[in-house]
Amino acid sequence: MTVPVAEPTAEPVPGAPLLEVTDLTTHFATPGGIVRAVDGVSLTLERGKTLGIVGESGSGKTVLSRSIMGLLPKRGTIRGGSVRFDGVELMTRSPKEMRDFWGARMAMIFQDPMTSLNPVMKIGKQITESIRHHLDVDREYATELAVNLLRSVRIPEPERRLRDYPHQLSGGMRQRVCIAVALACGPALLFADEPTTALDVTVQAQVLDLMAAQQRERFMAIVLITHDLGVVAGRADEIAVMYAGRIVEKAPTSVLFTQTRMPYTKALLSSIPKLEHPSHSRLATIPGRPPNLVAPPAGCKFAPRCAQAQPRCLEEDPPLVPGVVPGHEYRCWFPVGTPEGDDALARNQAAGTTAIAGGAA
Amino acid sequence: MAALRLIARRFLQLAVVLLLVTFFTFSLVRLLPGDPAKTIIPFGSDQQRAALAKDLGLDKPFLQQYVNYLGIPVIKSEGTTGLLQGNLGRKYSTNQPVGELIKQSLPVSIQLVIYAQLVALALAIPLGVLTAYRAGTRTDRAVNTTAFGFLALPNFVLALLLSYVIGARLKWLPTAGYEPGWLDPLFDSARTPSVEHLKYMVLPVITLAVGQVAIYMRLLRSDMIATLQENFITMAKAKGVPNRRILFRHALRPSSLTLLTVAGLNVGTLIGGAIVVEVIFGIPGMGTQIATAIAAREYVELQSYIFVLAFIFVLINFVVDFCYILLDPRIRRARADA
After folding, report:
1. Is B24 part of a structural domain of the chain?
2. CA-CA distance, B26 to A216, in Å (whole number)?
3. Which of A210, A355, B233, B318 is surrounded by the most beta carbons within 10 Å?
4. What CATH number is associated with residue B265?
């Protein structure tokens, strides 16, 4: 059976990347002030590729993905910059126009499968709903498509499951249903926002493998958002590390792991438990908390928590600079693995202090 | 098996509720100042009244009267007839069976309340959805203020106003009165439905519905605002589902449990509780009957009315429980496990 795919709603520009985000800002007006949740993010994603976005809770990953898709509520949200999808500018489009993209050309999988399916609607209805809305097919055909989708996400007895309610399925099953819903209209771009965080470890790999298989089959691009570098390590073509609403380091996956420049990335990497460590070894953690996004610090946003921070880091905000390998970019005055960085770290360790502690004294 | 046990438990609850209700109404009715015999023969002698009281069984001790009313066979009693035998007693003054009176007045009230609820919900549901969707905006505030204005308007004021302006001055609708509708023949085959029925119902229905719109709307609005924050709503949005469909197909059902509960309680309350509206519009429903029975100290009549209303109240709550199951499939399992 051939799977119908939603027609592109606007004329694609030949040769343009699938997704091109330029200087995207997303601020929220709150009673406490303006929260700079996403602060000047640029990224590009080609068809069929996977971009990993990694960062702690509150680093702006989720807001970034929803802002790119245009899913944030209008009131209280201030968006700036440009989002081009298939060469078409999305920032200026109304929610009504965006509905032709949502579910059809770009789709999203959410973190918590227990709450992202409607509890009072049968699974089948939730899948066929977007098929019927976006594709010009009748009910029988939509149901047939839904059965095939459920089968392709490896749900046993798909015909019977269509008539089930979400609460009758396990967490892993529900996330598969969510994937089926997202894939229903054959989107070109899939946002997966922490798709495995709420799942049992044994199920995590299965769900990620399933997504990878579907990606190959459909030549779909994926933005995989996670707080776990381990999740994206083997799956993303490129990884962007976010901190305080910005990209602090971005590189092809292998480069990020071998030529880490940003101390935050290094700290994230060393917080992954490794098999070769003896058991009961203490996990490396990053001291402190992400900065307040209403009044972020003046210099490098990570400086207050950075082991090699120098006085300059507290005053001057480091720009995103290119690394040696094409596509590698980072923000740091004293990059890891360079003489300046090693020197800064050695100086701090010798003094038994950091820029913050030193400056405050 | 689980379902059978559930039903059995419900019937046990029903029996307990009815026993308590009858006991309390029986006691409270007798605490009313006044005396039925005196109301029936206001100018007679004390002997005449005592004879009447004996006839009506009012001379017997309190508990014995109660047991007789329930129809529990006691050794000395001669031919017990009471609630257990399906006998609701007779009206003291006219000796009419109370059951006959209920057959005439109950359908009147049921129709009035059903119409009022339909009108109230038909207004409150779209308004509740709208104000939840536009929460905090000018639309939200305008709708809320208007609705609360109507809520603050007392029933009897609105009833008199409508009756005077639309009935007496404009003469568009009758000021008061009643014609049988679709439900009356089911209770009393002597009555035939009249096309005039709806004309007589318009004003009382508006009076009853107006105050409820604000309450229902607010209940739905707050539940709906909570539902709209749910992940599954964002998910539906990300599927490209239009707003109208998100609101009415995704969000409304899981938001309507509180509304359903309150609307159910209201139906039960209003069937016998729309006294003011029924009296002003001259509608011969349960409310009017109860008011008259209280004034005339018709103990048995009053007790039986309240008994029937309590029965209906409990019954409606069964129906509401059943509707929960229809609205939220998760409850189906929880209830079956209980």
Report:
1. no
2. 78
3. A355
4. 1.10.3720.10
